[in-house]
Description:
Strand order of the largest sheet: 3-6-2-1-9-13-14-12
Radius of gyration: 16 Å
Number of strands: 14
Order of helices and strands: EHHEHHEEEHEEEHEEEEHHEHE
Bound molecules: 3-methylbut-3-enyl trihydrogen diphosphate
Mean pLDDT: 94
Strand content: 15-25%
Oligomer: single chain
Number of helices: 9
Largest sheet: 8 strands, mixed
Amino acid sequence: MLRILKIGGSVLTDKTTEGSAKLGEIERIAEEVSASPGDLILVHGAGSFGHIHAQRFGLPSRFDPIGLLETHRSVVSLNSLFVSALSKRDLFPLPVHPLSSVLLDRGRIASMDPSIVLEMVKRGILPVLHGDVALDRSLGSGIVSGDQLVSYLARELRSDLVILGTAADGVMSRGRVLDRIAADDLSMIEEELGAGPGFDVTGGMRGKVGELLDLAQYGVTSRIFNATVEGNVEAALRGQAIGTAVVP
Ligand code: IPE
């Protein structure tokens, strides 16, 4: 049983104010993860630790070494806060920085060795990855979102449970949460898939659904749920059907 949980940057940070972490939320989520430990890969987004920097330096369309460093440093500082909260609960986390382990090609992961995170999980370690800047062999540089990392790892490692905690109840259509969404439904809800508040260089809910529909093509079902609601992270980790399922 291998589980992958992504916590969106909008859950961990205030996306409208640069570098503003929601420390109480980070602690709460670490606590909920500790209720259901083991066989887990954790990925988190950048929120206001990354999107604002990326935007400022013109990433991903411009190659800017200073921008890469500043954006990476920022998201690493959020990663450190999360790793510390997890470590206090004896979850044995280790940071995994995509900048030094992923090569992109036109914005998509061209190479990444998933056996490293798998080996960590086998040894009782909780790998903690994050959305990051990365080198791109065609474009120079790019941004690898946490959602793309989830989709890639879930496919490569044949994960049994793939859950994405966001600040929304799931995928919305006409004011209500959809129980499930498949590729055929996309055209129907495309207009409603807007970006959330604050800066987002990786496409918001639209980007997320796109990644998960890609994953669904490989037969993997995933779930988008609201991680700002207390108890939801723990429930989703236990396999409870909350939010919207993205199905093949
Ligand atoms: C974005 O990662 C990474 C950078 C901007 C450096 P995500 O796309 O996974 O972040 P969130 O969840 O939208 O904040």
